[in-house]
Input
Amino acid sequence: MGLSLDAATLLRHTRQGPRYTSYPTAPMWREDFPDAALAEGLGRVRGPTAVYVHIPFCREQCSFCGCNMVVAGRREPGVRYLAALRRQVDELPLPAAQIGVDRIHLGGGTPTWLSPEELAELFAILDTRFLRRPGCEVSVEADPEVTTEDHLRGLAALGCTRLSFGVQSFDEKVLEAVQRPQQRERIGALMALARSLGMGSLNLDLMYGLPHQSLDRWSETLAETIRIRPDRLAVFGYAHLPWLKPHMRRIDAGALPGPLDRAELFLRAHGMLTAAGYQAVGMDHFALPDDALATAQRAGQLHRNFMGYTTHRDQQLIGLGMSAISELDDRYVQQKGKLSHWWTAVETGARVIEKGALLTAEDKLRRDVIYAIMCNFELSAAEISARHGVDFWAHFAADRPGLEGLAAEGLVELDAAGVKVPPHARLLVRNVAMCFDPSLRAPQAGGPRFSSTV
Output
């Protein structure tokens, strides 16, 4: 095996799996998850913690979108949503009137669908129960087409430290094919203004595998991205799942790149971005060397939760709003995913839980193993054994054959000390982590439930 992977190798190892390869996986979720389990989890929160708020509204739906969102042309739904969030925050059964937080993230949907005044109201609601500690990261996802200069000035005044722009592509033909209106000149201008306002970390989301996306056209998008020079990048593969997301049927499947083309697109992104000075972080992120994610990975201190990569270890996550997930030590709880059901439940005091999962000691062990590989490309068998009271290789004997198959191709290194993904194989880190997920050994009924690894 050489020092880099080629498209054929990536394609050969492409398989279906959870996009973020995190626990809990689908078979563990229960729709009859007891209400008391969420209250118990929240009652044990001691902080510092993280808070995620889901803002579901968008001006229109892009045909590639896999998010839980609602198209809203009128402003009234936002008013009602904020009122329901206020009630939910007021009634959180936390152990204190306020708890400390190190991270607040607004996701969606499009958080900047809310007006600057509504965003100020939202942060005022959060501040009643969550005390931002010094250095608290406040991040907001933004659609460059609806985000205004007033939004940015307002967010800066509210303490926002990081913005994530959902760009996906700079290619007009690709954007038209996925119903994504976007003025490319606005993106650079908004980023420049955000920097001038003191927002020190700016992220762009890009997507490969979209219709009409050739290597040359994708390279132009990457070159424009490098010119703008965001601090971080998330580069996701489009998952075409029309049987789960009917709006994806608007995409011409015949115009989508084939599997080998997708692998080439992924490799082109990795090659151009690393050549431009970005450090590959985990499976699909890139960051400038002085960015917090990059420095954490080099120090072996990168971590994950349902919001993605983070520099905070073992931090509990409180999810607020429609479809939001709370990650509370040994339990995960997701709120109702349909807007009408969610706010009716909050307004009437009815059950707001859609489903939940209670983790066993085995689940927590596998979560630690998967996260160690996904974040830092290696794990210490001694450290895992000491933390969980197991003999690592004896405990994971059933997982070893899959790992040895990858090791035979030089894609992973196994020894008594643990597991390590060598630099040339890190584009396949998700495949290594998936070896430790027993739910993926069972055949999937009714067609693929997951996205492709490439």
User: Anything to note?
Assistant: The longest helix spans residues 259-275. The chain has two domains: 29-310, 360-441.
